[in-house]
Amino acid sequence: MANPVGEDNWLAYVDEESRHANDLEARVKVVELFKNAVSSEPGSLKIWLAYCEWFWSLFTDCQSSEAGWPEEEQQLGRDLFSFDAALSLWSDGYEAIKYRINDSHEFWNRWVSIELEQLARTRTPVGVKRISHLFRDRLQVPHSTWDNTSQMYSSFLSTYNNAAYETEFKEVTASAQEAKAAYEAREPYELKLNKASKLGDQEAYKTIMKEYLDWEMSQVKKARNPVLAVLLCLGLFSRVLSGVFAFNEDVWSDAAIYLYSVQHQARTSQVQLPIPNILDFHQRATSHCPWSGPLWSRYILSAEEAGWSFHNVESIKHAATNTKALDKNGMSGVLDMYTAWCGFLKRTAMNPNAPEDAADVAEVGLLAALEDVDLWGRRVYKDAYRGDPNYRLQRILIQYLTEVKGEIDEARSHWDRMASQPLLADSYDFWLNYYLWEMVVYSSRPKARSPTPATPVGGTKITRVPGLATSVLQRAIARPTLDWPERVMEVYLQHCNDYERPETLHQALDMVYKARQEVAKRRERENAEAAAAYAAQVQAQQDAAPDSTAENVMTQGSPSGSKRKRESTPGDASQGVNKRVKSVEVDGVDNAANEQKLKRDRENTSVMVTNIPADATQTAIRKYFREYGHINNLDICREADGQSTSALIEFRSTEDVQSALLRDQKYFGQNQISVKPGTGLTLFVSNYPPTADEAYIRNLFKDCGEVFSVRFPSLKFNTHRRFCYVSFRDQESAHKATQLDGKTIEGKYKLQAKYSDPTHKKDREGAVAEGREVRVKNVDYSANEDDLRDVFSKYGKVSTVRIVRNLSGKNLGIAYIVFETKDDAEKALQLDKTKFKSQILLVDLSKETNFKPVATNRSDRASASPAPSGDVDVAMTDRHGESHNGGQKPTPKEIQERTMAIMNVPDTVNDARIRAILEERGFRIVKFILRPDHQGAIIEFVDAATAGYAALELEGYEIVPGRKLRTGTVNELFKQSSEKREDKIVTGKGKASNQKGGAKEATFMPPPQNVRRPGFGQGRPKRGLGFVAAKNDSKGNHKTTEMNGTGSSVKPKSNADFKAMFLTSGNGSDSGNKEGHTGSINNQVNGAGQG
Q: How far is Cα 932 from Cα 908, in angstroms, rounded to an integer?
């Protein structure tokens, strides 16, 4: 039997089984499934309501022959599905969900309606008393529809107990004051949640819910009634753990910590607090988040505290190792779980009441755990695995050998074995722990006692010294790659001063003196390497800007062509939403390897499914096709008649499609669906106007037939993309659309509309792709184009010479020279490292790159998406059409005041579309920088007043359906992460996708750098767990920084600040900050910052 996880999965599974329950045995099986479902999701209102409705339907069906049951099954059904059992089940369900204050009324209203129907037929005093009790209890529970419940009770009393109406109602109202006050305290959060839910803003909903949870967890110490506070908090956790945060490890951990704190408070206070079964909770937590090592470790620890037997605790460990998700985030989860298991083994062996074989069992278990973890790590990371940098399992084993077995030499051999591993041998922390262990062993050994101690020869008394501990520190200092040798030297000198003989102390002083000299040289070398790496990074960023070329072409006034360009999509869902871009890809070195990457073949891996029930959700459709492989994308569309839904499902492989086609003419609920291949439905469309959105594309092809879906690519790694995939309802419509291929749009764009086929990608053209362009760096600042042409024309015929200049026309020391042939360009490489005027030239071939994460526009430039109008740069002008040299440059403070950021921009929206929005509203801009990696853009306007107008106008603007813009500062923009896509699932026997939504065939990770202890004032990146890797290129960040000594840190401006500047700008007053910070903004606006 399947074992679903999560509310929706259980409902889908039980619903599918109930549809085929045509006899009594099958119906009983469905009841058992519901029992398992409410055990797995005890706080799920949807499951409880479905369970009770199903049981009630069985009760009503077996009462007569109208449902078509055989007479024998009717008789058995009356015994199994009795009236008392049905009402008892409703009562159990209500008790499980009664403190879900936002929606528990849905369950209670249905239950009480059944009770009232029965009472209307019987009108017994017992029934009146029972329902009156239900109302009284309900009105003392906080819930969102308290007034409605009160009105229902009033009507009930008027009908069945009018004589006691006033007394009863007055008493109930008085006793319900606490419940009403409790809901009023929580109502602001509930209103915010309802608003976010209606707007469809899932991220806002999650943010508010987390704030709500934090507030609710703090109420147990503040509330007058801690019991009610705990019940309401548990009700809120039931909502989120069966709903929006069902698979959120952090929220499960928060709930575990809260339950433990309540349990501890109950033990230390006189108040009896309601506490659910902790072990059942941890079982559910680990089933929802099986990749979470911390949750598994809490489960093991809780089982140990509860006094579970060794075999029961061992079963938890086996359940953790049997899950295929424990190494989903690397070895961290594996090590967390095994650390808890080994800690349990050690404590069991050290327990004086443990059985005789506990020590032997612990030793076998500890050694087996070490071996299992090592094999696991090598399976995940191959030869790059170097073990746990915190050596947690080894420390537990050493403590066991030292304190339980007394095998000091065996324990020391484990220390020495670890000291031979570079990962640990380069860690000062490892050596200090080794040293402390030796000192503990030294101090625990009793001194030799003699009634008549002998006097040694020469009259000198022999002293006892910790020589083994001293040798540990000496071995550490001898490591030339130790991460923090200074700390070890301090401990070594102090140790020798406290314990060693004079001659040993003398040797220590000499050794430390020499070691410090070597460390000083090493630090100088490291600083020089870091400075060189930073300079190389800055140079690479500067070189990348001139290399940027537009991907699409125009037909009038610029070189054009009809070729179709296809490329892999770094931000595509099939590649993983958080896939890192390697430095070799940024430099364009690995293009050949990139060509070998598997392309998404939408034409041959999609199916069109029609006649799906109109109310079917994406989850239900995915579950229906769960046995047929990995779903890359799912688009659904409600039919115009509202009677059914269609879906275009893209699988990962053609084999998955062949399996899915087996569902053709099968039943989805009550509908017989049609599953046909999606071949010939999807077109690759490009070279449309840069400002085109989905509505424009649909209108473009409206005469061809019905457009089913339009999908734009992510611009997160290449803002110059301008293409989309258009899927049609039928092949005839798609064929008509291909007839528009080559059509001229708006007089200058030659449309490309071809069937989607990754094998039809053409080779790139142009000087860079053909190897005819060379890049020259370190050009003398006084040189001009003619000087370079004279020098390089000696090696071949030069087509163009381009020197990179800034806005003021200053030579930046970089030039690009295009030859007529590739051979001529290669000959020109002889000029590499030759002197030209006062500089040594650096000459190499220009390399292509698709990594263009930033699109920059100025007021005199078109979008980054259209192709350039020629190979030669156009002289830059300022926003008034004048040279920057001709007027006074704005101050950094002025730039800051007129610059703002817009956020929540989808990473499929290009710079041209946003700029069109600004121009439609008459906003004049100086500079525009699109940052899809932060879901936004930076805009510099002509003045602060315009910035203020724009902030007010753009706040809340719906740029695409369901996505509203937010305005703020540049600092706020850089706090936003890139957009995450979670539109893919792995089903059937396919490998599970990683936590962040990307599907990966292997979990191998490149090893990180060797560990280095940061010096004071230096920040270093965190390292990975359990493996070592080659050095990574340093990466820029988006923090606010000061450049060239300009600017000082101030508080970022809010929308209110923009509004104040706008209102006061007409009077010439300065409403901005007196000391404006210019780091981030000035860097971005003047091109010296990001990308």
A: 8
- Bridge-partner residues for 1046, per DSSP? 1043
- Tokens 């009841």 -> residue: 31
Q: How many CB atoms lie within 10 A of CB 527?
A: 12
- Sequence-distant (6+) residues with CB within 8 A of 986 are 630, 992, 993, 999
pLDDT of 765-778, one tens digit each?
678 888 899 999 99
Q: At what angle do helices 104-122 and 45-61 cross, to 10 degrees?
A: 20
Q: What angle do CA 557, 560, 562 make, to 5 degrees?
A: 150
Distance of CA 91 to the CA centre of its chain: 40
Q: For residue 967, give every residue at least 6 positions away whose Cβ sits within 8 Å of its Cβ, in sequence order, or none.
A: 900, 901, 902, 903, 950, 951, 954, 955, 1055, 1058
Q: How far apart are CA 420 and CA 391, in angstroms?
A: 13
**267 alpha carbon, distance to own chain's centre:** 38
What the block records as the tokens of 497 is 């001063």
3-state helix, strand, coil in the chain (%, to 5): 50, 10, 40
Residue 572 near residue 713, CB atoms below 8 Å:
yes
d(CA 702, CA 694): 12
Read out DSSP for 170-237?
Answer: HHHHHHTHHHHHHHHHHHHHHHHHHHHHHHT-HHHHHHHHHHHHHHHHHGGGT-S-HHHHHHHHHHHH
Q: Among 197, 76, 97, 98, which Cα is nearest to 142's? A: 98
- Residue 1032 is which amino acid? N
Q: Is residue 949 a contact partner of residue 1057, using CB atoms and an 8 Å limit? A: no
- Amino acid in the structure at residue 572: D
Rounded distance, CA 367 to CA 208, Å? 47
As given in the structure block, the two tokens for residue 1031 are 């050095």
Q: Which residue has the tokens 């030669």?
A: 872
Distance between CA atoms of residues 764 and 64, nearest Å:
76
Q: Which of 762, 775, 798 is nearest to 847 (CA)?
A: 775
- Calpha distance 618→763 (Å, rounded): 38
**Separation CA 307–CA 298 (nearest Å):** 14
Q: 990: helix, coil or strand?
A: coil
For 232-261, write each residue's pLDDT tens digit: 999 999 999 999 999 999 999 999 999 999
Of the pLDDT bands very low, low, confident and very high (cuts 50, 70, 90), residue 516 is very high
Q: Looking at residues 557-573, what average pLDDT do you find?
A: 38
Beta-bridge mates of residue 667: 672
Amino acid sitting at position 145: T
Which of helix, strand or coil describes residue 248?
Answer: coil
What 827-836 contacts at long range (C-beta under 8 Å, 24+ apart), as own/partner pairs, is 827/795, 827/796, 828/774, 828/792, 828/795, 828/796, 829/774, 830/795, 831/776, 831/791, 831/792, 831/795, 836/779, 836/780, 836/783, 836/791
Task: Count how many residues are written for the chain.
Answer: 1091
Contact 60, 53 (CB under 8 A): no
Amino acid making up residue 589: V
- Choose from 282-291, 624-633, 853-862, 993-1002 the range with maximum mean pLDDT: 282-291
For 392-441, how does the pLDDT look when each residue is reduced to its tens digit (9 = 90+)? Answer: 999 999 999 999 989 999 999 999 999 999 889 999 999 999 999 999 99
- Strands 798-805, 811-819: pairing kind: antiparallel
Strand partners, 398: none
What is the CB neighbour count within 10 angstroms for residue 365?
21
Residue 878 has, within 13 A of its CA and on its CB side, a CA count of 16
* SS3 label, residue 378: helix
pTM: 0.54
Question: What Cα–Cα distance (Å) separates residue 51 from each residue in 37, 116, 284, 815, 997?
Answer: 9, 20, 19, 73, 32
In the 3-class helix/strand/coil scheme, how is 324-340 assigned residue by residue?
CCCCCCCCHHHHHHHHH
On the question of pLDDT at 221 being above 60, the answer is yes
Distance CA 155, CA 158 (A): 5
Rounded Cα distance, 523 and 403, in Å:
41
Burial class of residue 760, CB neighbours in 10 A (0-12, 13-18, 19+)? exposed
* Alpha-carbon span 736 to 167, nearest angstrom: 77
